[in-house]
Amino acid sequence: MRYPLRIIVVFLIVLFAAGSGSAQDLKVTEKALPNGLKVLLKEDHKSPVVTFQIWYKVGARNEKLGTTGMSHLLEHMMFKGSKKYGPKQFSQVVMRNGGNDNAFTGKDYTAYFENFASDRVHISLDLEADRMENLLLDPKEFLSEREVVKEERRMRYEDDPTATMTEEMMAMAFMAHPYQWPVIGWMADIDNITRDDLFNHYRMYYAPNNATIVVVGDFETRTLLPAIEKQFGKITRGAVAPKVGAIEPKQLGERRIIVRKQAELPAVFAGYHTPDLKHPDSYALEVLQGVLSSGKSSRLYRSLVYEKQVALYAGGEYENVTNDPNLFYVYAGVMPGKTTEEVEKALYAEIEKLKTDPVTDEELQKVRNQIEAGFIMGQDSAFYQGMLLGQYETVADWKLLEQYVDNIRAVTKADIQRVAREYFSEDNRTVGILVPIKK
């Protein structure tokens, strides 16, 4: 007999609640090596696979105007050859052993990963230890890859009107904090970066005392941990990375920017300064995000797209897994024949409702169930578990995950109303309007 998905979800949540107690024990083994390297190991023997991830505490947040985009460019260069493995050999070794690899850079971190059958995890140790310590940064490879990144910027950002508008909105929302610039960097800054700049960036931030290794999957901790200690423990501790002291001042009035660019349709974005996951209000804001803008049954989509028919799409995002306070933003694409003024007014109308009228019991329970189910079902993926551990440990503390579900369950209707009033004010808002122009 087949059961509807919603029944399965509720069953999983009840089952999880029955065994979780006051907090979920993630059964993570944590070890700090003498050189400062943090190691997090989580055995999961459901399937014979393993994910090996290494997270460096460096991203766009650690850069300066004039050389923005350095962390992302360095990520590219990490695949261009080290002392033991030449250009392109890194990924070839992974593929020959049936695995896959990749990397990504964010505002707060740069991470690298390999996914293997569990009997191949030792390959990651050799590969990652070599490029942590012995990256070549060949001058010719550097010049070539810098052009690749510039072309990536043209294609993914400068040729995308919505991405351009979002970049400019972020640059206006943050005056003092490095969250103001894009991860990929400004074009002129990318062109300014030299090979020596990149080498110094590598030496400063790619050190064991600025990194966390996360391994999740089918392995034995008693054998893997000594292997990691042997391979990485001999790498010399680096200098202490400089702290990011920038603090964004309180916004004292609405900021607006209009971007005129060739595009099919107008769009409206509105961002509000909100706290990160280390703040207790982050759980209420996450539930609020689900009520307001998560999926086609959310308030924004239902109101703007289905009922008022002023938008083609509508949604939002709460950027909370960050070192410092970031934005909670909502957005909508304008329906042909409608105006940006109508869409903007409709967006704010739904936000104001959250301040004046409590959400319904049904809405609250639905969103809490969705968040819990997503978290619980995500435990079936070794890669997803590794991602969460790496993100949380890099920007805060992985142990926050053990209280995550309990804190989501504790959110009340009054909490949602309180944070809506606290953070969604006109003076705390930055608005971006995309106005299409003809070719």
Structural domains: how many: 2
The major pleated sheet works out as: 6 strands, mixed
* SS content category: alpha+beta
| Number of β-strand runs | 11
> In the CATH hierarchy, what is the superfamily of the largest domain?
Metalloenzyme, LuxS/M16 peptidase-like
CATH class of the largest domain: Alpha Beta
Mean pLDDT: 94
User: What is the CATH topology descriptor of the largest domain?
Assistant: Cytochrome Bc1 Complex, Chain A, domain 1
Distance between the termini: 58 Å
Shape: globular
Spatial strand sequence of the major β-sheet: 1-2-6-3-5-4
Number of helices: 16
Overall helicity: 40-55%
- The H/E string reads HEEEHHEEHHHHHEHEEHHEEHHHHHE
How much strand?
Answer: 15-25%
Could you give a short description of this structure?
The protein is of the alpha+beta class. It has helices spanning 5-20, 70-77, 89-96, 121-133, 139-158, 161-173, 187-192, 195-205, 221-232, 281-293, 299-307, 340-356, 361-377, 382-395, 404-409, 413-423; strands at residues 29-32, 38-43, 49-56, 100-105, 110-117, 211-217, 255-262, 267-274, 311-318, 326-334, 429-437. It is 44% helix and 18% strand.
Structure description:
By secondary structure, the protein is α+β, with helices and mostly antiparallel strands. It folds into 2 domains: 26-232, Metalloenzyme, LuxS/M16 peptidase-like (Cytochrome Bc1 Complex, Chain A, domain 1), CATH 3.30.830.10; 255-437, Metalloenzyme, LuxS/M16 peptidase-like (Cytochrome Bc1 Complex, Chain A, domain 1). It is built from 16 helices and 11 strands. It has helices spanning 5-20, 70-77, 89-96, 121-133, 139-158, 161-173, 187-192, 195-205, 221-232, 281-293, 299-307, 340-356, 361-377, 382-395, 404-409, 413-423, and strands spanning 29-32, 38-43, 49-56, 100-105, 110-117, 211-217, 255-262, 267-274, 311-318, 326-334, 429-437. A 6-stranded mixed beta sheet has the order 1-2-6-3-5-4, with helices on both faces. Strand 4 and strand 5 form a beta hairpin. Helix 1 packs across helix 13, helix 4 (121-133) runs parallel beside helix 9 (221-232) and helix 10 crosses helix 16. The N and C termini lie far apart (58 Å).
